[in-house]
Design a protein that fits this description.
The chain is an alpha+beta fold. It is built from three helices and seven strands; from the N terminus they run βααββββββα. The radius of gyration is 18 Å and the shape is elongated. It starts with 6 loop residues before the first strand and ends with a helix. The mean pLDDT is 90.
Length: 140
């Protein structure tokens, strides 16, 4: 079976996660506008607003999982993980709420290396599992 290299899977997004991130954006915009309208520190507003707006949007639109060149590349905003597919020892479904590069509680826990694990939430879980398993067969 031929697998397409460079496949990218977007994160599944739970409504409540999107709402929390949208609230963070709205709160940052409101706080920045309040500071500016009150004649407050422009420098402070110039730092807080871009971070408070940019980071949640980057997380929301920049969380994805790629399969390429024998590795799983996890990207969540400014954070990146590289997991060699040959080092993966197990994949299990979980709803673990611990912090992870996943925008949904509908997650996959990927164990790899010496006791390492990462949780992700690919939108198309079945296709992801099929493709990563095919890549594991080729790598193994």
């Amino acid at each position: 079976m031929m697998m397409m290299m460079g496949t990218v899977y977007k994160s599944k997004i739970d409504v409540w996660v999107a709402a929390v991130l949208a609230f963070a954006v709205a709160t940052s915009l409101f706080a920045g506008a309040t500071v500016l309208s009150a004649g407050g520190q422009r420098g402070l507003a110039g730092v807080v607003m871009p971070l408070g707006v940019g980071l949640p949007l980057w997380l929301l639109f920049g969380t994805r999982y790629g399969l390429e060149s024998g590795e799983l590349r996890v990207r969540c905003g400014p954070f990146t993980w590289h997991v060699p597919v040959a080092a993966i020892t197990g994949i299990t479904q979980t709803r673990n709420p611990l912090s992870s590069p996943a925008l949904s509680l509908d997650r996959l826990r990927i164990e790899y290396g010496a006791g390492k694990a990462i949780m992700i939430s690919p939108r198309n879980r079945d296709m992801f599992l099929k493709d990563i398993e095919a890549m594991r067969r080729v790598a193994g």
